[in-house]
Amino acid sequence: MRAGGRLRYRDPRGVLHISVRPCSPSPAPVIAAKEPFAVELKAGQKYGWCACGHSRRQPFCDGTHKKAAPGISPLRFVAEEDKTVWLCGCKQTRTPPYCDGTHKTEAVQSARLPPNP
Ligand code: FES
After folding, report:
1. Which of 7, 44, 72, 79 has the smallest CB count inside 10 Å?
2. Could you tell me which residues are beta bridge partners of residue 38?
3. Which of 91, 75, 98, 115 has the alpha carbon at shortest distance from 34?
């Protein structure tokens, strides 16, 4: 559902996703990692998955997108249950914030990672 520029939906796991779509074309995200991150989600807790790849707190947002990728916003969601999930680290998934295996492609595996700070 779209309302006021926000996209809200529940995925098949029941997790509520809220994202804000920018009006102008977004810059492309950078590949933060070539594999997903196993994360223990806590029911009722809010999370902000880094969609730009610039965060130093992967897979979560640390606000770096405001300067490094102003057209990309984090994907905010609320966990419906305590659960361990695989959150995408390559930022190329088609099922954000979850890994869909896209990181196994040659394009991701041969990509150069940004330098560590
Ligand atoms: S880490 Fe991005 S699709 Fe798996």
Report:
1. 44
2. 86
3. 91
Answer for the pair 81, 43: CB distance below 8 angstroms, yes or no: yes
Question: 96 CB less than 6 Å from ligand 1?
Answer: no
C-beta 58 within 6 A of ligand 1: no
Ligand 1 centre to CA of 15 (Å) is 18
Q: Which residue has the tokens 């009006």?
A: 23
Q: Domains of the chain: which residue ranges?
A: 2-109
What confidence tens digit (pLDDT) does each residue in 18-76 have? 766 555 566 899 999 999 999 999 999 999 999 999 999 999 999 999 999 999 999 99
Q: Would you state the pLDDT for residue 3?
A: 42
Tokens representing residue 117 in the block: 């700070």
